[in-house]
């Protein structure tokens, strides 16, 4: 069960961004995206500034831009929604290449597209520089209730096990000629989900007994005692300061 | 094409995101205190595994129309199987993990996503299921119908949560009626798939381990049919040995590696 300690979006490294404590990075990413969302959509150059800022973070973290770009395709479905907006939006309309496009719709589409993209890029940067265990530790230090972090820890440990079991069950169905195309063929999948739940729950009962026999007292033990210094916070929040300046510039500009 | 269910950043403006983030935090704080009662002595490990199950199930795509598929939300499913409080926490953790590690759903949209799917979704599913509990207890078709309706209503109402947030602080240019028609239309289709999977899943669980279905907790046990003949084997070796041995061995190794790794 070596899996579960890395995830597909993590890029191993030892850069300054990798070494920052996770809670600093979580707070920084959240505040950064908040700045982006709060920026008025007409302040076009400011969004370029955000992109440059992210590029600088990638440079520090040694993340190749192409690596990030490939993984940012995850937001593609929302692009589809954004493409619809110019056609369905309210008047006034402008003519462009023979198409009648709504001005408000165009602005709305731009707004969703750029903010969504910047958000995904920020999340990806966080995920690329922070391994799973560190994020959990960071959430613990941000005073998330221990019950929640414990549940999240166990979930992450076992998500791969359960997902692998789901994959094996799917493979077994396919090997027996299962090829669902329509909604009414969903029965076999659904019964598979049912037995997956029973298996998962019974596995949970066994895991709980195994944990009890190894001295589980209701809470995950803290394993590291490294402290987050003020310097860590200052370094982690420096990009947020730049983002804040950009957001204020956007407000002043429009 | 897979329909993404999670809102991204920039769909609603910053004050709305923050307001719904606060609602999500308050809702989860209540859920954490109330979930302890549901979890009793089995506590967190069970909830962790149920959450892992929701996470794995969300990876399973089901067909809606040729070329389009959706994935399970699981709101009504967890509400029926483990109760609304634990269900809320499970769904919220899944959403947070997807936002933090898989960039699925925006960071600032996490609050709105949690309100839609973990709070509105789970509680709608649970409310419908409780309303229909009398039928669910009476017969198996009743239970399946209850699960189907709960999941269908849950999906559509959760999408209405998005429409509400869009009405309050929508950042797009689309008119409210367009968004309403688009969201409700899409989610009615997704909801049918969600309903069928939820019904079949609950049915499968109720057939094997009815004690695991939270909705049926407290209903009188059915009469058991017992053979009058002599017992096939003496006490001490229940029939579970052959079926669980193979999985037990893998689990104990897992627990060992986990113990040494952490």
UniProtKB/TrEMBL annotation, chain A:
<dbReference type="InterPro" id="IPR003339">
    <property type="entry name" value="ABC/ECF_trnsptr_transmembrane"/>
</dbReference>
<feature type="transmembrane region" description="Helical">
    <location>
        <begin position="109"/>
        <end position="132"/>
    </location>
</feature>
<keyword id="KW-0812">Transmembrane</keyword>
<protein>
    <submittedName>
        <fullName>Cobalt ECF transporter T component CbiQ</fullName>
    </submittedName>
</protein>
<feature type="transmembrane region" description="Helical">
    <location>
        <begin position="43"/>
        <end position="61"/>
    </location>
</feature>
<keyword id="KW-1003">Cell membrane</keyword>
<keyword id="KW-0472">Membrane</keyword>
<feature type="transmembrane region" description="Helical">
    <location>
        <begin position="236"/>
        <end position="253"/>
    </location>
</feature>
<feature type="transmembrane region" description="Helical">
    <location>
        <begin position="73"/>
        <end position="89"/>
    </location>
</feature>
<dbReference type="Pfam" id="PF02361">
    <property type="entry name" value="CbiQ"/>
</dbReference>
<dbReference type="InterPro" id="IPR012809">
    <property type="entry name" value="ECF_CbiQ"/>
</dbReference>
<dbReference type="GO" id="GO:0043190">
    <property type="term" value="C:ATP-binding cassette (ABC) transporter complex"/>
</dbReference>
<dbReference type="GO" id="GO:0006824">
    <property type="term" value="P:cobalt ion transport"/>
</dbReference>
<dbReference type="InterPro" id="IPR051611">
    <property type="entry name" value="ECF_transporter_component"/>
</dbReference>
<keyword id="KW-1133">Transmembrane helix</keyword>
